[in-house]
Every structure is written in structure tokens, then in C-alpha cells.
Specification:
The chain is low in regular secondary structure. The chain is built from one helix and two strands. The longest helix has 7 residues, at 54-60.
């Protein structure tokens, strides 16, 4: 997980693709909507369909998302 271009967390316990189930993608919330979630605001989230390096994330994090391949 990168915040403002800096790696703040990493977890390889579930390697592989994110499986599309047709359900909701929940960010900062568990399966149960009553679980405690993230205390704050998330202004922007970008999900890529391939791995990206820190340098690539930092170089494109301020660009408009329109026309960015893989986003």
C-alpha cells in the first residue's frame, strides 16, 4: 500500500490476482459492515491490473487518470 508515493504497508499472504466476483470492492472495511473501518477520509484510490514500482507510482501519482494504461 502506497500513500502519497511512499510504501506504508505490504502483505504477500494472498498472492495472485484479485478475483472479480461481481460484488462490492470494499476499501478500509471488513466483510461485515458493522466491523470497525478506517477512521478518516480517502480522497483518491487507483487500482492497477499489474505490479508497479515505487518509482513508477511516484512519477504518475499526480497525473490525471484519463488515458493512463492499466488503470
Amino acid at each position: 500500500l502506497y500513500v502519497n508515493g511512499n510504501l506504508v504497508a505490504s502483505d504477500n499472504s494472498h498472492p495472485g490476482e484479485i478475483v472479480r466476483t461481481g460484488g462490492e470492492l470494499r476499501i478500509a472495511r471488513g466483510r461485515d459492515l458493522l466491523e470497525e473501518g478506517y477512521d478518516g477520509y480517502i480522497e483518491e484510490v487507483r487500482l492497477w491490473n499489474f505490479p508497479r514500482t515505487r518509482a513508477k507510482i511516484r512519477s504518475t501519482m499526480s497525473l490525471a487518470v484519463r488515458g493512463v494504461p492499466g488503470l
